[in-house]
């Protein structure tokens, strides 16, 4: 059976379809706007983060540039100071050299000695042979107060000169106080094994022997000669013993 619509039914039907279409369009538009709004928020967050990072980078660069500038200024100042000190050192060094030359000429013209009174000149050095006795440490310190140091023997010629001047044992500037068997001069230089004059007796007994009888710490200070009278060579002895000593100092030239 055919269904026949009246005009009013047709109009209602058409109107209903139109409304549905309109709601559909509205819903679609709303979804689009919501999606756009969501992306806009994401984009805004990303831009904000980038902006924060950019500001942080600018601040870091500014700090680094400030430090680099200060560092350059500091290095520049130190460079100037080093140059100034070098120039002052050169001036003082030249004055010192000139003073020594004048003193040398004065000594030659007047016949003055190159060493102080009671000191003996040999090989460009001055030597003082004490007449009093002290222990090794006191001897070392006394030489310093006299403007020198306990003698440091660097050659056969120097050894021969010293032995020609002494008749009894004297302290020299050599010790193994820090480490047993490691001998050092008072200028902290180690003993050169090719320039040493330890006693080597025919019976095979040699020095240094670090004798410990009565004194377990052993013998840690070197002397020219032995109490028994051998003065041509070195021996180690108890540092607390009192002996005469030899000081050495630079000559005036
Ligand atoms: Ca020793
Ligand atoms: Ca000894």
First-residue to last-residue Cα separation: 147 Å
Shape annotation: elongated
Q: What fold name goes in the CATH topology slot of the largest domain?
A: Mannose-Binding Protein A, Chain A
What series of H and E elements makes up the topology?
HEEHEHEEEEE
Beta content: 5-15%
SS elements, strand count: 8
**Main beta sheet: strand number and arrangement?**
8 strands, mixed
CATH architecture of the largest domain: Roll
Number of helices: 3
Low-pLDDT runs of 5+ residues are 1-8, 10-15
How many separate structural domains? Answer: 2
- Distinct bound molecules: calcium ion
> How many whole angstroms does the radius of gyration measure?
49 Å
Mean pLDDT, to the nearest integer, reads 81
CATH class of the largest domain: Alpha Beta
Q: What fraction, in percent, of the residue positions are helical?
A: 40-55%
CATH homologous superfamily title of the largest domain:
Mannose-Binding Protein A, subunit A
Summing up helix and strand content along with how strands pair, one would put the structural category as: alpha+beta
Oligomeric organization of the protein chains: single chain
Protein name: Immune-related lectin-like receptor 1
Domain C-type lectin: 122-248
GO molecular function: carbohydrate binding
Keywords: Disulfide bond, Lectin, Membrane, Receptor, Transmembrane, Transmembrane helix
């Amino acid at each position: 059976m055919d269904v026949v619509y009246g005009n009013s039914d047709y109009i209602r039907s058409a109107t209903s379809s139109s409304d549905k279409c309109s709601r559909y369009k509205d819903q679609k538009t709303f979804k689009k706007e919501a999606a756009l709004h969501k992306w806009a928020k994401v984009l805004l967050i990303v831009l904000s983060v980038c902006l924060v990072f950019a500001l942080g980078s600018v601040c870091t660069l500014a700090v680094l540039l400030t430090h680099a500038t200060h560092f350059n200024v500091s290095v520049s100042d130190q460079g100037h100071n080093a140059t100034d000190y070098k120039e002052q050192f050169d001036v003082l060094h030249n004055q010192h050299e000139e003073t020594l030359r004048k003193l040398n000429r004065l000594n030659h013209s007047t016949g003055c000695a190159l060493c102080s009174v009671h000191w003996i000149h040999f090989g460009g050095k001055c030597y003082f042979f004490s007449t009093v006795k002290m222990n090794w440490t006191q001897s070392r310190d006394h030489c310093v107060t006299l403007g020198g140091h306990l003698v440091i023997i660097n050659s056969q010629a120097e050894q021969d000169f010293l032995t020609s001047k002494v008749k009894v044992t004297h302290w020299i500037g050599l010790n193994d106080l820090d480490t047993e068997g490691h001998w050092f001069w008072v200028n902290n230089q180690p003993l050169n094994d090719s320039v040493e004059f330890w006693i080597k007796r025919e019976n095979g007994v040699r020095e240094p022997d670090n004798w410990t009888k009565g004194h377990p710490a052993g013998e840690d200070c070197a002397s020219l000669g032995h109490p028994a009278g051998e003065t041509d060579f070195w021996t180690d002895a108890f540092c607390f013993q009192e002996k005469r000593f030899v000081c050495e100092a630079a000559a005036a030239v």
